[in-house]
Each structure stands twice: as structure tokens, then as C-alpha cells.
Design goal:
Keywords: Cell membrane, Membrane, Transmembrane, Transmembrane helix
Structural class: alpha/beta
Protein name: SURF1-like protein
Shape: elongated
Helix content: 25-40%
Membrane topology: Multi-pass membrane protein
Distance between the termini: 37 Å
Number of domains: 2
Family: Belongs to the SURF1 family.
Radius of gyration: 32 Å
InterPro entries: Surf1/Shy1 (IPR002994), Surf1/Surf4 (IPR045214)
Order of helices and strands: HEEEEEEHEHEH
Length: 262
């Protein structure tokens, strides 16, 4: 009745179905893990943004690698901006996806250490090699508040660290690289400035990270599991159809004439 399942075509079809089921189940769990990661990250961002600003030197120090649990943590520091050694970070976009620069200004703390402050986005000059027009930060001693971030890397950001750039331009925000250029102790990581807000709205402050959207990963996980459940159902439907077609073909074939006995 089902001997056709032993044919080469049906053996291959069955093997393919047996392979697809665990693959689709695994893809579903992969999407589930991405959903769980996104939910955990949203919780981390929300909690760190809601926390009271902590003194920056409680969370980082020269040579320190900022751990993920401290990403977006609100920190504060008191000191003065060093615009003489200000640099810009290339190929950065603003809220409208316009390409320009991020302004990275050393902030000298009262104890002499340096905190890198990303003051926000400015448009690029007509000549990409030229230093853009950057509004000055507040003069004198000031207290800044911002979101603590880890040093940028090529592996983490996908941005290639190019060499031979114009003076005072960089591709990545790297505290160790800036420490060598400044000849001073630089705290690990950097801060995305939130306070004080710049006069005239420039540089354009970096917006808070999205921590409301959870993405479509859970829906994708359910889809993959439904696909996995549909494979054996589809296989069985195909088998029943094949059997029915074979039976119909057999019934429609006329029987051979049998000679009458002498």
C-alpha cells in the first residue's frame, strides 16, 4: 500500500522533511533568544537612564573597560572643556540620517584626569578633509551629565579604523588612543552629553537609545515553529495524495484479456 515510500524520490523527500524539522525548531529558538536579549537590553537601558547620575569616577577609571551593565548609565562630572584638543568622529548620522561628525571634546576633571565627552552631531564641511564648524562649549568650570558608553571597536561597531585621516579626525572613539594623543590619564569609555544643552541646538545632542521597541523576533520564532509543525503535516498530505493517485491509476487501467479454456 505504501511501498512507494521506498522509492528514491520518496526516501529523499522524507529525509529532507526530517532535516527541516529540527532546523526550523532551532531557528525558532534563535529568534526567541534574540527576543529575550532585546527585552533584557531594554530593561537595562530604562533602568540606567532612570537612575540618579553617579560621579563618573565611581564607574570608570583610566584603562577601564566599561561593562555592559553600565552602558547608558547616567554619570556626572565637574571640570573644564579642552577645545584645543577637540577631535571629530567621521561618518556619523543625526536623527534625520544626515551624515556628518560627532564632536569629541576632552573634559579635564578637577583632579587632572580627562573624560571624553561626545557633545553631539554637526554637519560636515563641503570639503570632507576640512575640520567642520563646531560651536564652542561652555567656558570655565561646568558640571556635565551624560550617558556612559564603552570605547568603540571595529568588531563591536562594524566601523573600520582607517589610517591617514586629516588632522583632528578619527573613525572610532577610543580612550586609549586619545590618552596617547593627549599625554594624560583618560577615563575608559566616553560620555554622550545630555546636560548642559548647547546654545542654538548645535552640536545636536545624541538622542536617547530606543528601549520601547522589542522587534519582530517573537513573531518570527512562532512562525518558525509553525513551519516545523507544518512539515510532517505536509508530508502526510503528500503521501495520502500519492497513494490516492496510484490507486486511481490502477483502477483506470483495463485488465488484460484472459483466454477462455479449451
Amino acid at each position: 500500500m505504501y511501498r512507494f515510500l521506498l522509492s528514491r524520490q520518496w526516501v529523499l523527500t522524507t529525509l529532507l522533511a526530517l532535516v527541516l524539522i529540527p532546523v526550523m525548531v532551532e531557528l525558532g529558538f534563535w529568534q526567541l533568544h534574540r527576543h529575550e536579549h532585546r527585552v533584557a537590553q531594554n530593561t537595562l537601558i530604562a533602568d540606567n537612564l532612570a537612575a540618579e547620575p553617579a560621579p563618573v569616577e565611581e564607574l570608570t577609571s583610566p584603562g577601564h573597560t566599561v561593562p555592559r551593565k553600565d552602558y547608558w548609565r547616567q554619570v556626572e562630572a565637574t571640570g573644564t572643556f579642552d577645545t584645543e584638543h577637540e577631535v571629530v568622529v567621521r561618518r556619523r548620522t543625526n536623527a534625520d540620517d544626515q551624515v556628518g561628525f560627532h564632536v569629541l571634546t576632552p573634559f579635564v576633571l578637577t583632579d587632572g584626569k580627562v573624560l571624553l565627552v561626545n557633545r553631539g552631531w554637526v554637519p560636515a564641511a563641503s570639503d570632507q578633509k576640512a575640520f567642520p564648524k563646531v560651536p564652542a562649549p561652555p567656558a570655565g568650570e561646568v558640571t556635565v551629565v551624560g550617558r556612559l558608553m564603552a570605547d568603540e571597536t571595529t568588531s563591536g561597531s562594524g566601523i573600520k579604523d582607517l589610517e591617514g585621516l586629516p588632522p583632528r579626525q578619527t573613525m572610532l572613539i577610543d580612550s586609549e588612543e586619545q590618552a596617547k594623543a593627549l599625554g594624560k590619564q583618560v577615563l575608559g569609555g566616553y560620555v554622550e552629553l545630555t546636560t548642559p544643552e548647547p546654545k542654538g541646538g548645535s552640536p545636536e545632542l545624541i538622542g536617547s537609545p530606543d528601549h520601547d521597541s522589542i522587534g519582530p523576533h517573537m513573531a518570527y520564532a512562532i512562525q518558525w515553529w509553525l513551519f516545523a509543525g507544518g512539515v510532517p503535516v505536509g508530508w502526510w498530505v503528500m503521501v495520502r495524495r500519492e497513494r490516492r493517485d496510484r490507486e486511481s491509476a490502477a483502477e483506470s487501467t483495463p485488465a488484460e484479456d484472459v483466454p477462455a479454456p479449451a
